[in-house]
Amino acid sequence: MVQSLEKLLDDRLRELMNAGYGEVQAGHFENAEKKYLQAWDIFPEPKFDWDSSQITLYGIAEFYLRWRSFDLALHWANLVFKTEPLPGDGSPYLTLGIIYFESGDLDSAFKNFQRAFELAKRRVFQGVEKKYLEFYLSRAEKRSRR
Question: Where are the alpha helices (DSSP H) in 67-105?
Fold first, then answer.
């Protein structure tokens, strides 16, 4: 059962996530990493059962992607599945696809984009760079011609 953090913890979580983002904007990735990991540590066990666990995991995964630490980005993105995403939510697969794409693993990127598309169609690609959808559609078209 998903629960809400008590207000004091939730406020601290937001403060740390915002501070991490600020450190990224300033180019201080090591400091940002500390803030993001402190934010994750705020969650009581079981860490994946809180209403803000999923968005925090996405934030940490995206931070590592921006820092080009692909293995760590994949680790945190995969943890999203422990939060039990809603049926039809392609976002976890989209996030994995983006990380694989940016790391150069285009086969894994395609497989994850395909799963995201199967679950949520084009809408899952809204709000991300067009190159991801274009890549997926282009490769899907080539595969259908075989």
Answer: 70-79, 91-103
pTM over 0.90: yes
Q: Are residues 64 and 97 in the same domain?
A: no
Q: Please say which residue of 19, 37, 69 terminates a domain.
A: 69
Answer yes or no: do 91 and 65 share one domain. Answer: no
Which structure tokens are listed for 86?
A: 């809603």
Domain hosting 108: range is 85-146
* CB-based contact 75:67 (threshold 8 Å): no
- Confirm if 113 and 96 have CB atoms less than 8 A apart: no
Q: Tell me the residue length of the chain.
A: 146
Q: What's the total number of domains in the chain?
A: 2
Distances (CA, A) of 61 to 16, 57, 134, 137: 15, 6, 23, 25
pLDDT, tens only, 23-35: 999 999 999 999 9
